[in-house]
Structures are given as structure tokens and as C-alpha cells.
Amino acid sequence: MKNKLFVMSAASGAGKTTLKDLVIKDFPDIKYSISATTRAPREGEVDGVHYFFKTKEEFEKLIKEDGLIEWNEVHGNYYGTPKSFVEKTLAEGNRVLFDLDVFGKVNFDKVYPDATGILILPPSEEELEKRLRGRGTDSEEVIQLRRRKWNSPRRKASTNTSSSTTICSEPPTNSARS
After folding, report:
1. 58 CB contacts (<8 Å, ≥6 apart)?
2. 0.70 cut: is pTM over it?
3. What is the spatial distance between Cα 81 and Cα 43, in angstroms, rounded to a whole number?
4. Among positive and negative, which fits the CA dihedral 133, 136, 138, 141?
């Protein structure tokens, strides 16, 4: 699977989605892996495009039937990577790009240890908070929870030797190619 699977991992708000959009645009043979989640869709999100939205019961059935490569409970919701989607995408001859938090990456490596890991760090805690607030999708309680947890993923990620590359995500005008 080497050079077929690419896993971006970072805390929420670090810039994974922005970087994913740039990669997908420039490399048409790299397909974005769609995760399953039990959280409610945000405005504009479409089932099967942004996420596979599941009920708690449906998600727990996937867990029980070994239908996920990795899964975790984050901020009270389940998130995971459906095996069937990844296997189908690889069978079609495509490469796959994943967007996982650092804990999901650790579990993913148990199934696909040869995947290329890309650790993304925001430039600072202040920039991370600015990005979370700028989304306009999270409550103050969720922002503060994510802020408190920011150092935990950073510590774990800094000792995670399975990431091939570590990058700091500056705002898009500074990090995107011209």
C-alpha cells in the first residue's frame, strides 16, 4: 500500500480541509476518503459527499461487523473510516487521502502501517482558536473543549514516528502554490 494511502492528521482547525482541497485539485487520481460520523450535518454538508451520516445504532453496527478501518469517539460523536469505501477506491486504481485526527491515525496504522503520514500543526494556539471561531459552526463550549485538547494531540503527535512529514499550516495565501 506504500504511496497509495496518505493520511493527514491534526487537531480540529489545524488546516486539514484546506490542504486536502489543494491536493485533490492538483492530483485527480487521489480520492478523498469519506468518513462516517454520528454528528449532525453542518449547513451545506451532503451525505455521501462530505460524510456518511449515521445514527448511533448504525455506527455501532459497523463497529460490531468490523466494517471500519479505524474509529473513535470525539466530542461525543463517533467518527470512522469505512472499509468498503477505501477498498472500492483502491480497486478502481486510485490513491486515497485521509483526514484523521492524531488518535485516528494511530488506529489506522494498525491496519495500514505502510501508509504515508502527514502531520499538520497550526502555527500557534491563537491561530487555531481564530480558525475555529472563523468557521462559525461550533459553540463556545466546543471551541474551549478543542482548545484544551490541542496540546494533547500535539504531545502525542510529536512522539508518533509513523508520520513521514510534519508541516505547519499557515493561512492559505502563504501555503498555497501560486
Report:
1. none
2. yes
3. 22
4. positive
Cα–Cα distance for residue pair 171/82, rounded to 1 Å: 31
pLDDT digits (tens, 9 = 90+) for 102-132: 778 888 999 998 899 888 877 667 776 677 7
Q: 136: domain CATH number?
A: 3.40.50.300
Residue range(s) defining the domain that contains residue 122 = 5-175
What span, in angstroms and rounded, lies between the C-alpha atoms of 34 and 37? 10
Query: What's the residue count for the chain?
Result: 178
When divided into structural domains, the chain yields a total of: 1
* C-beta contacts of 90-95 below 8 A and 24+ residues apart: 90/1, 90/4, 93/29, 94/29, 94/30, 94/31, 95/3, 95/4, 95/5, 95/6, 95/27, 95/29, 95/30, 95/31
